[in-house]
């Protein structure tokens, strides 16, 4: 059977018929999946994505394990949370052996919206190659760009295009949807100055204006984190 690859450009495009029985890969470069990948690589036991701060506080209250609350609304740390949505905060001494409970404006919404997928991976530029190596065993893949406030985002689409390019170079017979072809073409057209191009995006501009330049530099690094992040039950683990 010929493998197939599709791209959804935002969480708003999610529906059961597009992902049920398929392998989903959620991307939120700025910054939820970059945070999750970094935390799991730096020793976190697991990540629990939730939709609301009340859900996060409830989980922490009802569980005795080492729990860290991290997340944002409109890029700012949620009141009462331990951390915001910066991957650079996910140091080993902070996250080691902890459950990271996260809620964000876009990324965790996309993850929870993809619950009907048969398998679900979390990806970013940081762990793209590792993720692609795991995906080669799967035949029907959907790359889900979390997007920004329900709409298209440059950075997530570029990452989806990069993933599509990596997959296509290994599986030369894979069938790319129009959206996957467009994502790959966009990535290849700006590959040499990808971050400079992404800087034109709205979300990038918001983070830059708020002084998150170190996060922006880090989140566009390719393949620095050799970890595969996969949903098992309600949680995301490094596998």
Written account of the structure:
With about 240 residues, this protein is α/β, with parallel strands linked by helices. The chain has one domain (about 5-45, about 110-239): putative 2-phosphosulfolactate phosphatase. The protein is about 40% helix and about 20% strand. The strands form two sheets. It has a seven-stranded mixed β-sheet with strand order 9-1-8-2-7-10-11, sandwiched between helices. A hairpin with a 2-residue loop joins strand 4 and strand 5 (about 75). It is globular. The chain starts with a strand and ends with a strand. About 50% of the residues are buried. The mean pLDDT is about 95.
Q: What key attributes describe this structure?
A:
239 residues, alpha/beta, putative 2-phosphosulfolactate phosphatase
End-to-end span in angstroms? Answer: 26 Å
The CATH class turns out to be: Alpha Beta
CATH topology: putative 2-phosphosulfolactate phosphatase
The ordered string of helix (H) and strand (E) elements is: EHEHEHEEHEHEHEHEHHHHEE
> What percentage of amino acids are in beta strands?
15-25%
Broad structural category: alpha/beta
Main sheet summary: 7 strands, mixed
Mean pLDDT: 97
Number of domains: 1
Question: Which CATH architecture would you pick?
Answer: Alpha-Beta Complex
Q: What's the helical proportion of residues?
A: 25-40%
As a whole number of angstroms, the C-alpha radius of gyration is: 16 Å
What is the tally of helical segments? Answer: 11
Task: List the strand order in the largest sheet.
Answer: 9-1-8-2-7-10-11
Q: Give the overall shape.
A: globular
Tally the beta strands: 11
Determine the CATH superfamily: ComB-like
* Poorly predicted tracts of residues: none
